[in-house]
From TrEMBL:
<dbReference type="GO" id="GO:0009399">
    <property type="term" value="P:nitrogen fixation"/>
</dbReference>
<comment type="subunit">
    <text>Homotrimer; associates with NifD.</text>
</comment>
<comment type="function">
    <text>May protect the nitrogenase Fe-Mo protein from oxidative damage.</text>
</comment>
<dbReference type="InterPro" id="IPR004893">
    <property type="entry name" value="NifW"/>
</dbReference>
<keyword id="KW-0535">Nitrogen fixation</keyword>
<comment type="similarity">
    <text>Belongs to the NifW family.</text>
</comment>
<protein>
    <recommendedName>
        <fullName>Nitrogenase-stabilizing/protective protein NifW</fullName>
    </recommendedName>
</protein>
<dbReference type="Pfam" id="PF03206">
    <property type="entry name" value="NifW"/>
</dbReference>
Amino acid sequence: MTDEDFDLDMSELSSAEDFLEYFGIQYEQSLVQVNRLHILQRFHDYLAKVDEMPAETQARWTLHADLLRQAYQDFVGSDAKTEKVFRVFHMHEPRTASVPLSDLMGQVKHAPSV
């Protein structure tokens, strides 16, 4: 496999199942159905932490496979809420916002002044 082949293959993968199958990783469909975006985001996060990508195509393929396997395994004994992949899971308290009624009324034509 050449670098161009690997890059082309990677650009054509679109689902979590595509990635897992491409890298030959056994998976449970039910686990992937629930966590597909979380697995792919974790995989992306792991790739972003790699300081230097290997020059050889086979080494790059192996690194990608290992990181995807690790991302998948993160959700085998856990769940999205525990793993907190996305920012929304890092929010502790609901946030409230207030908008004065006068600001809203100012946007409506012919609205009485408040």
